[in-house]
Specification:
The chain is α+β, with helices and mostly antiparallel strands and 91 residues long. It has one domain. Helices cover 48% and strands 23% of the residues. The chain has a 3-stranded antiparallel sheet with strand order 1-2-3. The two termini are 22 Å apart.
Length: 91
């Protein structure tokens, strides 16, 4: 929803805010699509599993989405924090 609003009206936020929203959406998309639809996201169709494997690793809870990529809960939390800390209106 935030991404759509910024896409429709870029004057709502600074460029760095818009970029942070895009990066956050990409990270969540890589995990959300396979969990919801049981298929890899279009952006990562060639490399990612149809269903990510959940497990606990050295950094806590995570999902292995491809042979060489694990998305940890910590990564998702950190990216959200970064995104919200960069949210600033365009002046």
């Amino acid at each position: 929803m935030i991404g759509q609003r910024l896409w429709e009206d870029g004057s709502l936020a600074q460029d760095s805010s818009i970029e942070a929203v895009k990066e956050t959406k990409k990270l969540f998309e890589r995990l959300r699509i396979p969990l919801a639809k049981l298929e890899a996201s279009k952006r990562h169709k060639k490399t990612d599993y149809d269903v990510p494997y959940a497990g606990v690793g050295v950094r806590g809870l995570g999902w292995q989405v491809s042979d060489d990529t694990i998305i940890y809960q910590e990564d998702l939390s950190e990216q959200l924090f970064v995104m919200f800390s960069k949210m600033a209106p365009r002046i």
